[in-house]
Amino acid sequence: MCLGIPGRIEAITATEPLRMGRVRFGGIAKEVCLATVPEAGIGDWVVVHAGFAISVVDEAAAAEVLSWLRESP
């Protein structure tokens, strides 16, 4: 089982050799590989697993997942 966490792209920090960006997860920001989501831009929400953005999601879907995570024990 894998767990992907939604985060919002704050900045594109590199484009070569890999597209990278700073993604915020609540109070924490991490450097994430964005190479697999070339359509994503600043302000977009992405699902991140193991340091790689694996899909773009809308804000409502991201909020729903974050709500589930906050409620889980």
- Helical stretch count? 1
Query: Looking across the biggest beta sheet, what order are the strands in?
Result: 3-2-1-4-5
Number of domain units:
1
Reading the helices and strands in chain order gives EEEEEH
CATH architecture annotation name: Roll
Tell me the Rg in angstroms: 12 Å
* CATH-assigned fold name: SH3 type barrels
Descriptive account of the structure:
This protein has 73 residues and is an alpha+beta fold. It has a single domain, classed as SH3 type barrels. It contains 1 helix and 5 strands, in the order βββββα. Strands 3-2-1-4-5 form a 5-stranded antiparallel β-sheet, covered by helices on one side. 21% of the residues are buried. The mean pLDDT is 93.
Detail the topology: elements first, then pairings.
Layout: E1 5-14, E2 20-25, E3 28-33, E4 45-49, E5 52-57, H1 59-71
Antiparallel strand pairs: 1-2, 1-4, 2-3, 4-5
